Amino acid sequence: KTIAFALPIVERLLYKPHQTAPCTRVLVLAPTRELCVQIHQVFRQLSQFAHNITSCLSTGGLDLKSQEASLRLQPDIVIATPGRLIDHIHNSPTFTLQNIEILVL
């Protein structure tokens, strides 16, 4: 099921690269950490040979500071749980949703 939405996203990112500086263009929200990990693995497998596509996993139970550092690099894809997304919106000054083109719920 994950590949049904992940493959078109990776294809779009490959054929429509950044117009300016790197930014987060895809946000995937999942209700549990386990599902986020699974989705992140699928995106990593699909984009393993596309070195210009990056993704970041942001869930509870993982170190907040290391996630902030990963988000500062402006990954193309962010996979997050709703609670951790809210944490980053309120507490990570460099994290923005301004350039999101695709939202998966």
From TrEMBL:
Residues 1-105 form the Helicase ATP-binding domain. InterPro entries: DEAD/DEAH_box_helicase_dom, DEAD_box_RNA_helicase, Helicase_ATP-bd, P-loop_NTPase. It holds the Pfam family DEAD. Keywords: ATP-binding, Helicase, Hydrolase, Nucleotide-binding. Coiled coil: none annotated. Gene3D superfamilies: P-loop containing nucleotide triphosphate hydrolases. One of its GO terms (cellular component) is cytosol. One of its GO terms (molecular function) is hydrolase activity. This is Helicase ATP-binding domain-containing protein.
